[in-house]
Amino acid sequence: MNKLLVSASVALGATSLSFAQQTEKPNFLLFIADDCSHYDLGCYGSVDSKTPNIDHFATQGVRFTQAYQAVPMSSPTRHNLYTGVWPVRSGAYPNHTCANEGTLSVVHHLQPLGYKVALIGKSHIAPKSVFPFDLYVPPLKGGDLNFEAIQKFISDCKAKGEPFCLFVASNQPHTPWNKGDASQFNADKLTLPPMYVDIPQTRELFTHYLAEINYMDQEFGNVLSILDQEKMTDKSVVVYLSEQGNSLPFAKWTCYDAGVHSACIVRWPGVVKPGSVSDALVEYVDIVPTFVDIIGGKPQAKVDGESFKPVLTGKKKAHKKYSFSLQTTRGINAGSPYYGIRSVYDGRYRYIVNLTPEATFQNVETKSPLFKEWQSLAETDSHAKAMTTKYQHRPAIELYDVKNDPYCMKNLAEDAKQASTISRLDKELKRWMKDCGDEGQPTEMRAFEHMPGKRK
Predict the structure, then answer these.
(1) How far apart are CA 80 and CA 125, in angstroms?
(2) Does residue 20 carry a pLDDT above 50?
(3) How far is Cα 169 from Cα 411, in angstroms, rounded to an integer?
(4) 147/163 Cα distance (integer angstroms)
(5) At CA 25, angle to CA 21 and CA 29, rounded to 5?
(6) If pLDDT is split at 50, 70 and 90, which confidence band does 23 have?
(7) Residue 106 belongs to domain spanning
(8) Beta-carbon neighbour count of residue 10 at 10 Å?
(9) pLDDT on residue 24
């Protein structure tokens, strides 16, 4: 990591000046991690992770308990985040994807309002015409963030009196989990999620994942320190997002709650109550319209997201009734030829439709040495058998009471008492799919048309 000589205490400095007392437009800084399960952060309940910067940041803002993204993969997630448009509508629904020409992004919405808009770090978006950032700086060799570029951008905007919107996209804790100090975690004492097969190999690998979360937390602390050094903390709305869950089974690449449930923390000095918690249901697609609404502007064209500014200001407690998600396995590395998944969540129940349940679910994780160890153990261990089977062979529909079963362990789809819940959620899911132009399996089979590397 290219280090800045700044202290964590500076990064966690107090804020005081209310936005209502300011005449200039607020700045926006959004930091997004990469494949970080929300429950592996201290402020979201982890007893093992070490995330002091994120945890302290949560005491300065509002922590959302029900923030969701539309796709449990990085590329479509980032397109969805930066455009405020549903994945199938924008065309960016498979992985390694691109948005349809003519799609507008945050750049188009904020530049007319006088903002400089930049992305520093991981990109994973295309084409440039949809994302014409004023500045894009890729990661350094080895995948680290370019902190000098971050500071220069903020400093330049400050000197010119230009409000900015800066997206800082970390590569951590994406595999191969080779950053940070794993020795600070005792593998034997870790608390593992119940869907994992508890063997020494799982525990050892998990220490390296936690180490990279700690590394990402330090990155976040450095970014906050830069903002404080430039005396822009009180003038900036800062958002932290964890992205989809990690790449171990039942998170990334799935529509189980662990796959699409994200950490979301917002600090807005003088407006958001420090240390508050919101159960409002919000989605990544809502970020762009929220930024525009905070400024007092209007999107340049229709977006699918809805501003949750009223939740931030305390005028409303609720935001949405449903969140939606999809997974397109076609085209991912070592993925099934097709395995489409669609899902809707209502704040308690998660309903999942597997478009081709007769197929076997595959990805790079099912080819990994760890999963093969789980499969070997499945010959004699009932939990290993249940988990490996559940991951690769799924029924047509699944229903989980996430409030009481956050890891989606018990499928309630066959419970006659849940018939009305299934009917209601199925109706909402079909309505959303129709609205987006999602035809289900035909849409899955057209995935290559939206993947530049797969086009013929």
Answers:
(1) 10
(2) no
(3) 35
(4) 19
(5) 110
(6) low
(7) 25-320
(8) 15
(9) 78
User: Same domain, yes or no, for 189 and 267?
Assistant: yes
Same domain for 39 and 72, yes or no, is yes
Do residues 392 and 267 both lie within one domain?
A: no
C-alpha–C-alpha distance, residues 180 and 216, integer Å: 9
For residues 339 and 302, membership in a common domain is answered with no
Residue type at 197? V
Average pLDDT over residues 56-62: 99
Cβ neighbours of residue 307 under 8 Å, at least 6 residues apart? 286, 289, 290, 292, 293
79: domain CATH number?
3.40.720.10
Residues 311 and 363 grouped into a single domain: no
**Is residue 105, in this structure, part of any structural domain at all?**
yes
Tell me the two tokens of residue 66.
């029900």
Q: Which amino acid, 404?
A: N
C-alpha 75/C-alpha 95 separation (Å) is: 5
CB 231 within 8 Å of CB 159: no
Angstrom distance (rounded) from CA 132 to CA 300? 15
The DSSP string of 68-121 is: E-S-SSHHHHHHHHHH-S-HHHHT--SSS--PPTT---HHHHHGGGT-EEEEEE
Q: Which residue has the tokens 């924008």?
A: 90
- Rounded to 10°, the helix 369-377/382-392 angle is 130
Q: How far apart are the first and last CA of the chain?
A: 39
Q: Do 269 and 17 meet the contact criterion of CB atoms below 8 Å apart? A: yes
Q: Which alpha helices (H) appear in 303-349, and where do they start and end? A: 309-312
Decide: 225 and 199 in contact? Cβ < 8 Å. Answer: no
Least confident of 133-137, 252-256, 316-320, 452-456: 452-456
For the entire predicted model, the pTM comes to: 0.95
- Taking phi over 0 as left and psi of -120 to 50 as alpha, with beta for the rest, 146 belongs to beta
Beta strands (DSSP E) in 299-394 are 323-328, 340-345, 349-354
User: What percentage of the chain carries pLDDT values higher than 70?
Assistant: 95
Looking at residues 408-418, what average pLDDT do you find? 99
Same domain, 80 and 93: yes
CA–CA distance, 381 with 359 (Å, rounded to integer): 24
Is 386 a member of any domain?
yes
CB contact at 8 A, 88 and 437: yes
Work out whether the CA dihedral 378, 382, 388, 394 comes out positive or negative: positive
Which residues have C-beta within 8 Å of that of residue 141, sequence separation ≥ 6?
none
Structure tokens at 249: 């089974």
Percentage, residues of the chain above pLDDT 90:
94
pLDDT given for residue 455 in this prediction: 76
State CA 307 to chain mean position distance. 18
Cα separation, 206 vs 400, whole angstroms: 26
Burial of 5 (0-12, 13-18, 19+ CB in 10 A): exposed
